[in-house]
Amino acid sequence: MSQPVYARIVNYRVGPREQSSKEILIQIIGTELAAQAGKFIGKKVVWKNTTTKLLGHVTGLHGKNGVLRAKFKKGVPGQAIGTTVELVNS
Question: Which of 53, 45, 48 has its CA nearest to residue 90?
C-alpha cells in the first residue's frame, strides 16, 4: 500500500474575463518539476471539509513548475484555496 499524496490548492483556473470554480490549480507538496508532477495525471482528487467532501480528477499540467489542473463536478468554495487535497489512485 502506497502512502497518500497531498497537494495544496493554489487558485482557480482563471481567464481574462472569468474564473472557473470547477477547475482548480494544485501544487503537489514536494514536487517542483513538471516531469515529476506528470505522473499524477488521471488520479482522483479528494477535498474534505468538516461537512463536505468533493471529488474530482487531475486533467493535465499547468505550466512548467509542477502545477496541475484538477476538475470537479461541483464548484469548489473560495475557502478551499490554500487548503490541502489528497490524491488517490483511480
Answer: 45
Residues 6+ apart with CB under 8 A from 9: 24, 25, 26, 47, 76, 80, 81, 82, 83, 84, 85
List, in sequence order, the alpha helices (H) in 1-90: 34-37
Q: Residue 75: which CATH number?
A: 2.40.10.190
Number of domains in the chain: 1
Q: Which domain holds residue 23?
A: 5-88
Of 26, 20, 23, which Cα lies nearest the Cα of 86? 26
Look at residue 1 and tell me whether its pLDDT is greater than 60.
no
Q: Residue 90: what pLDDT? A: 63
Report CA Rg, the chain.
12
Look up cell 472569468; give the residue: 18
User: How many angstroms separate the CA atoms of 18 and 29, rounded?
Assistant: 27
